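Q: Structure for this?
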Amino acid sequence: MKPSRRPANPNFSSGPCAKRPGYSLAALQNALLGRSHRSKPGKARLKEVVDRSRNLLGIPKDYRLGIVPASDTGAVEMVLWSMLGARGVDALTWESFGEGWVTDIEKQLKIKDLRIMRAPYGQIPDLAQVDCDRDVVFPWNGTTSGGRIPNGDWIKSDRKGLTICDATSGVFAMDLPWEKLDVVTWSWQKVLGGEAAHGMLALSPRAIERLESYTPPWPLPKIFRMTSKGKLSEGIFKEETINTPSMLAVEDAIDSLKWAESVGGLKALRARSEGNLDAIAAWVERTDWVDFLVENPKIRSCTSVCLKIVAEGFDKLPVDQQWAQVKKIEALLDAEGVAYDIAGHRDAVPGLRIWCGATIERSDVEALLPWLDWAFAEAKTALPKAA
Ligand SMILES: Cc1ncc(COP(=O)(O)O)c(C=O)c1O
């Protein structure tokens, strides 16, 4: 039987993620459209994003924070291209995005002294093996597996290398140990439900020192360049973006930050996300066809919650049939207007992924869960049985 209650908001995609509760385009009516981003009011808007983000996240005063091109990917890649090569690199990967950074480091930048620390979907690498006197590149939250770094205890305070952290699906929903992180990147499109297009880049004093003291042997395109004549281009970390930003996306980011403040700041955002995970955990506990992809709760994400199907016979199906069943579940829920975009990432193992970041209401997660049971039962009957 179909459940009677539907989530009020069916948007459970892991990016772009659901807009904040109560969102309306009316919130953008004061956007500075048709004006220069270098005008006085334009710069004020850009500075507002930086200042509100810094305050909400409690970023140390001596860290620079700036808006950069090309979403989180742009922020990560400008750092890899600008900073790597000065010392050996430990690259941690346990899912698709970390793997993408490994490709950059190994195949594009061709860093010779590279240790790739890889773990399968559902796990993370052994953090005790990481050498923080080397540069360390890692996602904080692996969005496609739902495995996250539990804390910064493994990072030495007196490290010689730089810790370069892609935190795009963790920031605003998890505590980050800022003093242990030299580079942190994210995009507006994730936990706060903003728009993509621009990235945020936070740099520690040691990261800035690297930029000012090291010149990589490869060419740097203009959108990656953060220094001029050997000195940090300070303007990028105030309100002078490298190239033209979308002032509509900027206004949207301001709206999302104001919402985050209105619900109680970082602590409240975290609690919202953790509460959503709790709701799913209670259901997983009483449901026999499904389990978390990440078995260890200490490293289980509260934002990109990934589930595997453990019903008898499922693992015996060929992988394409497993995916077909997942896609069927997704399509059934889509057709009902109950949930969109909840199939696992194409690079992951077949399963479901439900975004539980701060813009998602717990009541919507709770309303979704009986529908998952319904869709699984329907999809199972519509597909061939395991041999
Ligand atoms: C961990 C991680 N890194 C990088 C990206 C790429 O982000 P963007 O498309 O905003 O550049 C994503 C997107 O989902 C992600 O989850």
